[in-house]
Write a structure and sequence with these properties.
alpha/beta, Rossmann fold, seven-stranded mixed beta sheet, 13 helices, 7 strands
Amino acid sequence: MNEVIARNHVKVLGTGERTLMLAHGFGCDQSMWRYILPAFEPFYRIVLFDYVGSGGSDLSAYTSERYGSLRGYVQDVLDIVEALELRDVIFIGHSVSSMIGMLASIERPEYFAQLIMIGPSPRYLNEDGYVGGFDKSDVTELLDMMEMNFAGWASFLAPIAMKNPEMPKLTQELERSFISADPAITREFAEVTFFSDCRQALSQATVPSLILQCSDDSIVPMAAGEYLHSHLDNSTFRLMEAKGHYPHISHPEETIALINDYLKSEAAYTG
């Protein structure tokens, strides 16, 4: 147990009966949840962690063999759940973590009660009529930029992804998060993320889910969120007023309200 807790920099807060597990997205770490934490900490037990390769995790535990696909990140989630002996977890995942949580729930559905997906996408690449938002050449250019000029990549992507120019401090915070990570690991995580395709797995998911789709998300277009909803049984779709790909940072009040509404609704339990 202690090995997993240290490896993934796991923190447990709050004393509620139900457990929220918060899973950060690509290029981030558990600190990105601090804007919504105060709303949930008095009522839930909260599990925070960093994927291996991110934040305060043990970088020496990173191998390309394990983390060269989403499977390694799914295993991180399952390892933490098992180490803490958790059941009926409410899993809140941002971006690629939405699919990581879904894949974990397919493998061990008894561990999870609900999935809450913030800015999820089952596939980031455009393909055969499917709109993921990126052409393969776009992603290849992004990966090349990361390799040649990591700082330049961070300063290029952060304002596009945050998409709230009236709040420049948030863009700067995201850029700092990008730049603080190991460049080689971050690039590999980007490759795994952008080339992942979870569409075939959607029909296997049984845990009720909430999809929070931002109204103007430059990473995940509306069509990808709608595709996910239409192919994911027991899913609830909510279109947010928030713009950008990080509503839990830029619009925490709306994010909190929609999560609370869902958890109090019958849909969270019946789908």
